[in-house]
Amino acid sequence: MGALTLVLTALSLLLLAQIRSERNVPLYDFWAESTLGALTFSTVGAFVASRRPENPIGWIFCAVGLYAGVGHFAGQYATYAILARADALPGGTALGWIHTWSYVPAIGLLVFLFLLFPDGRLVSGRWRWVAWFTVAVLTLTTIWEALRPGTLPGLGPIRNPLGMEIATGTLGSALNLVTGVLMAAVGLIAATSMFVRLRRAEGVERQQIKWFAYAAAVFVLSLILYPGEATYTLVGAPWFSWVGRALTLASILGTSVAVRIAVLKYRLYEIDTLINRTLVYGSLTAILVALYFVGIVVLQRVFVLLTGQQSTLAIVASTLLIAALFNPLRRRIQSFIDRRFYRRKYDARKTLEAFSAQLRNETNMDALSDDLVGVVRETMQPAHVSLWLRPETPSKAQQAD
Fold first, then answer.
1. How far apart are CA 384 and CA 73, in angstroms?
2. Structure pTM?
3. Which of 15, 221, 274, 288 is 20 to 30 Å from 28 at the Cα level?
């Protein structure tokens, strides 16, 4: 599956290069996401499946990569055969039809990834109905996408050759709504399964789920910011769409890396530091960007009132303000996040800081011993703690005397 995915991706990029040389031919909208998804998912899936063949997670990744490769190739082939070089290649319409529904099974595999991660088993036997419900919803959605009338997603003016013209208007809108709601319900149930598993997990399994949940959260955020008409209408800034697309590409790569780390149990315990830094610097960036633009707007209004015209000093002053606030804000945000989400570590650090201050002033060895044992109990919470002190030995000068 991995080798076939790589071949299809290479052929897709070759067709893309040929299409770009043609004028007035729309490019396949999702070529970058499809290319990166096919390469990363198939590569990581093949690596994980070869190391853990008994775990279905690696095989699911291989299948997702293959579906991404098939969809990408079908889209590029249809665009080339129908729009760029009409009738140059046979089967353009058929490949376009395959492209229109191939993404649905890939989404279904991702849903099963949520349900089965990290050991390849459901949370419990009571979740079997979720698996069968998911299969039913995916089957229904695939049939509807294969027969839905109109243009094919991402392929410009190419229309679905098997589209049911009867399913237009109110009926088509109703079917779109039903399948959309069912897919959303399946995704929500799968995410709930992950949270239930996280609450029950301990030790290594908990760290594995944290890696996957972190990557999934970034991916969902990228979908919210993904470039589209709704995003552009809401924000009205092109750079916002660029950020969304860049974040989407990064999340595709990050999901593959996170699953590889989690399944192969490599550097699992660094996820807590990664989550902490993401919360701190993500919040810091959002606050600073908001302050920057608010500062520019306010200062520009001030300059207009004073001088009657705008000035570049507003940008300079806002930049200096952001530079001055960076470290103080970072420390405050770090302290807040440690208190709110990492209370145990925060209390342990405060206890150690207090003990270090006491250590500089205390001279009574018995008191220090009691304090040291108390600090260890509070910060590390061992089942048992004992302290042995090396007995005093006479110095060489005392021995000579």
1. 62
2. 0.70
3. 221
